[in-house]
Automatic annotation (TrEMBL):
Residues 1-332 form the Aminoacyl-transfer RNA synthetases class-II family profile domain. It is found in: Cytoplasm. Keywords: Aminoacyl-tRNA synthetase, ATP-binding, Cytoplasm, Ligase, Nucleotide-binding, Protein biosynthesis. This is Histidine--tRNA ligase. It comes from Eiseniibacteriota bacterium.
Length: 437
């Protein structure tokens, strides 16, 4: 019979085997974030549509083509969140967090939604981990955010990460740069696709976001006599230039590998100064970005707050985990499991024992009253490290049998000493935690 329902296009189920990798990655991330003294924030999965329309730019792909926009039963104009920074900024304002008068370090993790064309590493529901420092213009905050970004990847086992970095200046210096870029591209306008031609008119910086290989060649100076592309760094105002120099110097001091990417710009007005990204080429040209971030000194003001600077990033967890998978990564095994096997006569006390043991151990058993042989098979399949057998005679004598499923050896112990024996037997495998760095 054909299945009536499948997960909607662009979404997928994360099944238990795969989730072990996710949980490992999430738990490593939580450790790093806690050591950086960032605190978690959870915002709703949907918000007013306007929040995103205003902050992501009406002309952006996310707003024009990728938003899950809907009306609720009262006709409210809502959207599933396509990203996490605008909701965090909204919450920051709504709860007057700035009143505390110091900078706030926040992080979030959860699903985001964009109606893109699904492919490997690109989904309609995907997961991000992000962090923000709100309330400081100090270059040291940009550097801290980049260090945190890199240390998250390190905690996931990426040893070879280079951060691409650029400065996008201020809205004024960016507009000046946009004009230089437009003048540079004008002679080859006819070689650009329709989207890029429109962007050349509306917001020339966004032409640099193109994924089209022919356009990328053109921007790289191949196949034309355009001369080198103008660089944003050459259009920076004095303060942004000083900020940029301070960021680079501190990155060097921390030994964070980075390379300047002149094509890394953001076309929206609230982005300022530092912009950065990390890529993994194995994911394919359109979805190689593992994460990115930057300064957004104009965002909170755009949402109606008083001018408040901020800097942050978001990392695509789906892609991180895809890369880990490609590298053959397997998460460390969880704590060892115990399987309880009962006879017909010991089924009732077994239920009590299972509950008691579950206060300390990971315990599985067969909830159906099945034969001894069937339970033994289930124990073998369950991946348990050892079995606890409640034989009728032993139970009457106040004893149980512990069987080691790897070696096959077994011993009879008094019920009262069961926990101590299990502890001794499972040793280091008990409550095994993820090894720290
Ligand atoms: P962005 O907010 O577009 O800068 O995205 C930040 C990160 O989220 C990217 O670097 C990707 O790793 C991830 N990401 C963005 N869109 C998707 C998507 N549709 N599917 C999976 N990951 C995504």
């Amino acid at each position: 019979m054909a299945l009536k329902h499948q997960a909607p296009r662009g979404t997928r189920d994360l099944l238990p085997d795969e989730l072990e990798r996710w949980q490992w990655a999430e738990s490593r991330a939580r450790d790093v974030l806690a050591r950086y003294a960032y605190r978690e924030i959870r915002t709703p999965l949907f918000e007013d549509y306007e929040l995103f329309a205003r902050t992501s730019g009406e002309s952006s792909d996310v707003v024009q083509k990728e938003m899950y926009r809907f009306q609720d039963l009262k006709g409210r104009d809502l959207a599933l969140r396509p990203e996490g920074t605008a909701p965090v900024a909204r919450a920051y304002l709504e709860h007057a967090m700035g009143g505390a008068g110091r900078c706030h370090r926040l992080w979030y993790m959860g699903p985001m939604f964009r109606y893109g064309r699904p492919q490997k590493g690109r989904y309609r529901q995907f997961y991000q981990i992000g962090a923000e420092i709100i309330g400081t213009v100090a270059p040291a905050a940009d550097v801290e955010i980049i260090a945190l970004f890199v240390d998250l990847f390190e905690a996931w086992g990426f040893r070879d990460l280079t951060v691409a970095i650029n400065s996008v200046g201020t809205p004024q210096s960016r507009r000046a740069y946009g004009e230089r870029l437009r003048a540079w591209l004008e002679p080859v306008r006819h070689r650009l696709g329709a989207d890029s031609q429109a962007r050349l008119d509306s917001n020339p910086l966004r032409v640099l976001d193109t994924k089209d290989p022919a356009e990328l060649d053109l921007l790289a100076g191949k196949g034309g006599d355009l001369g080198p592309m103008p660089r944003m760094l050459d259009s920076l105002d004095e303060e942004s230039r000083a900020h940029w120099a301070a960021v680079l110097q501190a990155l060097d001091a921390l030994g964070i590998r980075h390379e300047i990417d002149h094509g890394l710009v953001r076309g929206l007005d609230y982005y300022t100064r530092t912009a950065f990204e990390a890529h993994d080429r194995s994911l394919g040209p359109g979805q190689s970005a593992l994460g990115g971030g930057g300064r957004y000194d104009g965002l909170i003001e755009a949402l109606g707050g008083s001018p408040t600077p901020g800097v942050g990033f978001s990392i695509g967890l789906d892609r991180v985990i895809l890369v880990l998978e490609q590298r053959g990564f397997a998460p460390p095994p969880g704590p060892a499991k115990v399987f309880v096997v009962a006879m017909d006569e010991t089924r009732a006390p077994a239920a009590v024992l299972v509950r008691e043991l579950r206060r300390e151990f990971v315990v599985d058993w067969d909830p159906e009253p099945r034969s001894f042989g069937a339970q033994m098979k289930a124990a073998g399949r369950s991946g348990a490290r050892c079995m606890v057998l409640l034989g009728e005679d032993e139970w009457k004598r106040g004893e149980v049998v512990i069987k080691d499923l790897a070696s096959g050896s077994q011993e009879t112990v008094p019920r009262a000493g069961l926990e101590a024996s299990l502890r001794a037997q499972l040793g280091g495998e008990l409550n095994r935690e993820i090894p720290s760095r």
